[in-house]
Design a protein that fits this description.
about 80% helix; mainly alpha
């Protein structure tokens, strides 16, 4: 048996193709649209809380604390649970598999919540996080407070992503969109109430809103998934051979590494920006600019689970490839329209509340990130192929490529000290994503050819 990093595990080999009519682009659209809406609504979360912070006292300090320290740390801690969605879609096919993954999710959620508490409530914050991020002095205490308030984040994210995987697997993805909309409404309501009715600081309003929002979404996802657990999941034929914990871990650990490496890039970017020209301004603008980019990029993120769910149908890869081409063209056009027209001023100044100097910096950063959403469409197409064919190892290696290119580009920016931090970070992330896509495209070339011929 092959022992290469991307070798398929025979225990979790992909299921045979399902007989039926070929998949059409319209069917891909119907599967993708509710997930894309969910991702896009979730992407509005960062602009909402950033807009609230920008209208309160000391906006630069609180934006930098949230976008430069609290959110990156929260993302690192949650990294091992982020891929529970893909695992649930791919593997939770019967009651025994569901119970195994559920137990794993609860244990890992508890452990990571304990890690979050240690970083937020003990001297580890000063010993680890302050030297790592090297934030401006006024950012440290708001960041410490915000990280404490975000304590429920990781467990809620892991629980709702596991439940959302069940909803997607059994054709109820519209509940994912409803849950995300509920989360956004609660985030907006809590942040506005905390800021303008209770007089809370920006970091308190933002992190309290996020903590409440993700918890409500997790509760809704559990309620919506209950009929799946008691209905089609219970009636499903047992998987042969049955899923075991070692088999699950062989599938899941490469995805965990992938998620961890992808989220480590966020704090690396923040730490690098803190050491470049216009550090405070770039850290303040980062959550606003990255929030807009997340909305655009998230439409490609939604493709990953659609690919995993449809690829065992005839003609699926060809339809998915055509849909990806159409989506890429649309995203490139929209991103360019925002970056190079007065829409940038409308978004960054009028909606987000940034002053003119920060609006100009955010617009410059967006222009340099122009190809990023398109690259994410292609990445999620080929990454879905790798997950479907159980070659999750190649995804981990692609993240090593991403991390290496990002680190090298950011190191050059820090060494040169010639360019504002935000554009340098955007260029680094775009170049790294392009390298990652190239690696994935080459690594699954045989699988792509087989699926294209199916």
């Amino acid at each position: 048996m092959s022992t290469s990093p991307g070798a398929a595990d025979p225990h979790t080999a992909t299921t045979p193709p399902i007989a039926g009519p070929p998949v059409s682009v319209a069917e891909v659209w119907r599967a993708w649209a509710p997930l894309a809406a969910s991702w896009a609504v979730m992407g509005l979360e960062m602009p909402v809380v950033s807009a609230v912070i920008a209208r309160l006292a000391d906006p630069e300090l609180h934006l930098a604390a949230y976008g430069g320290v609290v959110f990156p740390v929260a993302l690192i801690v949650e990294a091992p649970v982020i891929m529970l969605l893909a695992a649930s879609v791919a593997l939770a096919r019967d009651v025994a598999s569901y119970r195994l993954i559920y137990r794993f999710m609860m244990w890992i959620g508890a452990g990571l919540t304990l890690l979050h508490a240690l970083l937020a409530f003990t001297p580890l914050f000063d010993l680890v996080l302050v030297p790592l991020f090297d934030p401006p002095a006024g950012v440290v205490e708001p960041a410490r407070l915000g990280l404490k308030i975000m304590l429920p984040w990781t467990w809620a994210i892991g629980y709702r992503r596991f439940m959302q995987g069940l909803l997607i697997r059994f054709g109820r993805s519209h509940h994912v969109s409803i849950g995300t909309a509920l989360r956004l409404v609660s985030v907006a309501a809590v942040s506005l109430a905390a800021a303008f009715l209770l007089g809370a600081e920006g970091i308190v309003a933002a992190t309290a809103a996020i903590a409440v929002g993700v918890t409500l979404e997790a509760v809704y996802s559990a309620v919506a998934a209950r009929p799946v657990v008691t209905g089609p999941l219970r009636a499903a034929q047992p998987v042969t051979p049955p899923l075991t914990l070692p088999g699950f871990m062989r599938f899941f650990l490469p995805l965990v590494l992938t998620s961890l490496l992808s989220l480590v890039v966020q704090p690396i970017g923040s730490a690098a920006m803190a050491r470049m020209p216009m550090a405070l301004e770039s850290l303040a603008v980062w959550p606003v600019a990255s929030g807009l980019l997340f909305i655009l990029r998230s439409l490609g993120f939604a493709l990953n689970e659609v690919v995993v769910a449809l690829l065992d149908r005839p003609g699926a890869y060809r339809a998915l490839r055509r849909f990806s081409l159409l989506l890429s063209g649309a995203l490139l056009s929209v991103t360019a329209l925002v970056a190079f027209t007065p829409l940038a001023t409308f978004w960054f100044a009028d909606l987000s509340g940034l002053p003119p100097a920060l609006t100009a910096l955010a617009t410059l950063g967006l222009a340099w990130a122009l190809p990023w959403p398109v690259l994410d469409v292609v990445r999620n197409l080929v990454q879905g192929v790798a997950v479907h064919t159980r070659r999750t190892g190649v995804i981990s290696w692609s993240m090593v490529v991403f991390l290496g290119v990002t680190g090298a580009a950011l190191a050059v920016g820090v060494a040169l000290q010639r360019f504002p931090a935000l554009p340098v970070a955007m260029v680094a992330f775009v170049a790294a994503t392009a390298a990652q896509v190239a690696w994935l495209w080459w690594s699954v070339r045989a699988e792509r050819a087989r699926l294209a011929a199916a």
